[in-house]
Specification:
Blueprint: H1 2-19, E1 26-32, H2 40-56, E2 65-71, H3 76-89, E3 93-95, H4 100-111, E4 119-121, E5 136-138, H5 143-157, E6 162-168, H6 171-186, E7 190-197, H7 205-214, E8 219-223, H8 226-238, E9 245-247, E10 265-268, H9 277-289, H10 298-317, H11 321-329, E11 338-339, E12 344-345, E13 359-364, E14 367-370
Parallel strand pairs: 1-2, 1-3, 3-4, 4-5, 6-7, 6-8, 8-9, 9-10
Antiparallel strand pairs: 10-13, 11-12, 13-14
Amino acid sequence: MKGPMRTVAALTVLLLTACRPSAEPVRIGLAGPFSDPVVGAPMRKAAELAVEEVNSAGGIGGRPIELVARDDRGDPDSAVSVAADLVAEGVVAVVGHVFSGTTLAAAPVYGAATIPIPVITPSSTAPELAQAGRHVFRLCPTDLEHGAALATWIRQGLKLTRAAVLYLNNPYGRGVRQSFVTRFMALGGVILESDPYLGDSPDVGTFLDRIQAHGQAELLVVAGNRTEALAVLNAARSRGILLPVFGGDGLEGIEQDGPIAEGTTLTAAYFPTLDTPQNQRFVRTYLAKYPGSGHPNQPAAATYDAIFLLRDVIGVAGSNRRAITTALTTLGGDIPPYQGVTGILAFDGQGDLARMKVLIGVVKNGTVVQVERSP
């Protein structure tokens, strides 16, 4: 009898072992400009915080998350190399990239994997990303939504009518400018100037001189990035042009540029002052873990959400890439929406958020204060 009993016992052990959840890590890629202290570094910190919290709570069905982080330096060519590396590393999903240009460059690489890798970008706003593939999702509004929201606020919230526009002559600047102008004019506004510029420190003196000579503009829109808006502000103020300046989410961080930025209005998908329990807890935990690093930005908050979203999706669908992509596609349908730090997350049929909420903030005393009333 000893022989058969040993056989039964051995089979029992094997069966029990097979039924146990695998302790093999779930490998998730993270891609962004981590060497950029303002944009990318907070993203990586938020990802590491989220992974630490998930793993300390038992991981995903007993499996820890292993973060495979790669710095794309904010450069499209580097993003392609990073994407190829993450494909070779066998990650089941990628959180990244930050900028639209890097995400658009990397998306085909992830899509060409034997089983396409699902990608969740926290902050790539280019409208054309919706055509990048069924494996690409984003946790932010598009450029078109930012421009339209800014126009609506200026016309309906502030009752201003006559605008001058300076825009960065690239896809981001043209996208914000187009949507702003279209909505502003539809609401009865008048565009007095619409002039393109190039470079981080653009020479816009000719445009500003013309705006000043006409003397009819009530506001100035800068459809571009923080460094360019700062250059425009300095050039305008040096000429005695005191028009209020408005911009999209590209102006993020301008509140750190001193008194010159006071009164500047910008759009955002996220502010660290959002008064929700999820956000308050996130900001409190983030500041406790990274004292002295400043408040988390939008890429950080959305990255934090993306990690927890993947935790829930993989917990239901498993760690197969195709299953993860399918589950993300049905988020908000077959799978309930995810209540995150940045809001309620669900996707439409193109990987965009089903609800694109744009916030409006004004720089006051070196911080961005969310507008209390929005039309």
